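On clarity, I found the account of how folds are encoded harder to follow than it need be. Since the whole study asks how a given chain folds, the encoding of that fold should be made plain. For the editor and my fellow referees, an illustration may be useful. An entry of this sort, consisting of the sequence and the corresponding backbone structure tokens, reads as follows:

:::
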Amino acid sequence: MSSKGQHVVPRGNGWAVQRSGAERASGIFTTQQEAIERAREIARRNGAELYIHGTDGRIRERSSFGKEPLPTKG
């Protein structure tokens, strides 16, 4: 898991955006969609992974905004 990865996780009655390994959230949102939009912005800016968790806390979706590996010469 990337140290810069952004997670959208359930938090109380809302949703939190939290960096991998961080204890505190960078933001708390009313809806999951708001949290996803913010986490996606951060992940794009940092070239990081985005992990979207469901209400049960399990990862349900993942996106990568890092550089793609170069194709191999064949």
Observations:
- The beta strands are 6-11, 14-19, 27-29, 49-53, 59-64.
- Residues 6-61 form one domain.
- The first helix runs from residue 32 to 46.
- The chain has one domain: 6-61.
